[in-house]
Amino acid sequence: MFNIILFGPPGSGKGTQSEKLISKFGLKHLSTGDLLRTEIAAQTPLGLEAKSFMDKGQLVPDEVVIGMISSALDANPHVGGFLFDGFPRTENQSIALDKLLNLKQTEIGVVLALSVSEEELVNRLLNRGLTSGRTDDNNEEVIRARIAEYHRKTSAVADYYTRFNKVVTIPGEGTVDEIFESLSAEIDRRSVAA
Ligand code: B4P
Question: What per-residue confidence (pLDDT) applies to 46?
Fold first, then answer.
């Protein structure tokens, strides 16, 4: 099993690149953002709680997302590997993920960190907000709050995995195909070495 974390600030291209990577490498895609939006659309109690945080650009509480990921791992026992997109987003989530994977006698193979400037992030998300219908994309104040939350809580995830020598930074500006080539080359290198 070769498991990957696709890491980066909101708007860095995680969702976009995940779609391409899962079909090339046959991975199971686990996006906490998508899982949360499914709960919101179904108006479940979990979704209603999550929405109140997401609409303000804040992270949803750790126990909620860790529980969702734990269920998703259990529901997919026979996959070749997982691509985690938007998870983990705090150091606590990273520790919890390592424990869950340990129980399955596997681990994270590589953390691919997309690097994009703040102005480009804001432009991309405002652009997406024109068509996505996402309430967290159509307001610049909320977008900047999401980026601030990333610096405050989520950049610690890269520090955590750097201790285990697992982080590779990939430039996230350029065409979608160029970035996909860089990510794919790194996965090929790391999965052969694993
Ligand atoms: P997510 O759904 O994870 O969304 P995101 O970070 O905004 O987007 P992503 O990074 O995937 O988007 P992409 O760049 O692909 O999170 C939403 C919210 O859910 C969070 O704010 C939080 O509240 C909550 N949440 C999720 N996971 C959580 C967790 N683990 N813990 C706590 N809370 C959690 O796309 C952006 C745009 O850029 C698109 O329009 C795309 O077309 C464009 N784009 C992509 N690549 C491009 C390129 N190379 N050039 C130009 N444009 C590009």
Answer: 94
Distances in Å between the alpha carbon of 174 and those of 12, 40, 141, 143, 182? 11, 33, 26, 21, 11
* Mutation probe of ligand 1 site: the residue of 124, 125, 151 with most atoms within 8 A of C-beta: 124
Q: What is the pLDDT of residue 192?
A: 77
Q: How far is the CA of 14 from the centre of ligand 1 (A)?
A: 6
Q: How far is the CA of 125 from the centre of ligand 1 (A)?
A: 8
Contact 90, 152 (CB under 8 A): no
Pocket of ligand 1 contains residue 59 by CB under 6 Å: yes
129 lines ligand 1 (CB under 6 A): no
CB 114 within 8 A of CB 172: yes
Strand, coil or helix: 42: coil
**Predicted confidence (pLDDT) per residue in 149-163, tens digit:** 999 999 999 999 999
Atom nearest to 12 CA in ligand 1: 14
Q: Residue 30: which of 14, 41, 46 has the closest Cα?
A: 14
| Percentage, residues of the chain above pLDDT 70 | 100
Q: What angle do CA 47, 146, 150 make, to 5 degrees?
A: 110
pTM: predicted TM-score of the whole model, two decimal places: 0.94
Helix (H, G, I), strand (E, B) or coil at 10: coil
